[in-house]
Amino acid sequence: MNTLQQARDQVLCQIRQACAQAGRDAQTVQLLAVSKTHPSEMLREMHAAGQRAFGENYLQEALEKIEALADLNIEWHFIGHVQRNKTKQLAEKFAWVHGVDRLIIAERLSSQRDVSQEPLNICLQVNIDAQDSKDGCQPADAAELVARISQLPHLRLRGLMVIPAPNNPQAFADARQLFDLVKDQHAHPEDWDTLSMGMSGDMAEAIAAGSTMVRVGTALFGVRDYSKQA
Ligand SMILES: *Cc1c(COP(=O)(O)O)cnc(C)c1O
């Protein structure tokens, strides 16, 4: 068995254990493989190990991989910061965009999504622990944004995405509470099923708090070398 397969099996095992500990069904947590900085061949190998959902942060790098791996049935997630002038390619090439934090971005993604495609899945990114340097809307603005974004025609607003600072389990609890609270504002509440939180270092805590999608890079692919980034 190769090492990527082993790493994935180990992460899936950690997810199952965290679910068991939290009294949750393991099927309720999805694994998003965060592949930024890693070459297409590694993604191909991870795909062969059974992984279908991959998350990328940098648009140009992602577009190259999407092209190189067009023969595989990969579900592509964009988890980086969304720049206003990059929405067209996001709308065309991805199945999910996690970092939506303003109405204008959502409006552009909706109008640029081709009508022949499935609606674009999105998560509203919330700055849940009041970090200066981080993207995301203010928690107080989330309800209004959910109400507005959930009415846009070519999007499916699936839930919230948060990236709290390390070692702050309260942030996960706050995100879970907000997730439950703003569901009432959604025009199609049946679409509201995703809480995107937890990374390599805090998967178990995120799952205990109710995460439904953990975004895992390092534990699957090893430490990133940014000097070789595409
Ligand atoms: C890079 C990244 C991850 C993965 O982080 P690891 O610690 O390597 O698991 C998850 N989410 C986002 C938004 C990221 O940018």
Write up this protein.
The protein has helices at 3-22, 40-48, 59-68, 87-93, 103-112, 142-149, 169-182, 203-209, 218-221, and strands spanning 30-34, 53-56, 75-78, 96-100, 120-125, 155-161, 194-196, 213-216. It has 230 residues and is of the alpha/beta class. It has one domain: Alanine racemase (TIM Barrel), CATH 3.20.20. The chain has an 8-stranded parallel sheet with strand order 7-6-5-4-3-2-1-8. Helix 1 packs parallel to helix 8 (203-209) and helix 4 crosses helix 5 (103-112). The mean pLDDT is 96. Bound molecules: pyridoxal-5'-phosphate. GO terms for molecular function: pyridoxal phosphate binding.
Features of this protein?
binds pyridoxal-5'-phosphate; eight-stranded parallel beta sheet; alpha/beta; single chain; TIM Barrel; 9 helices; 230 residues
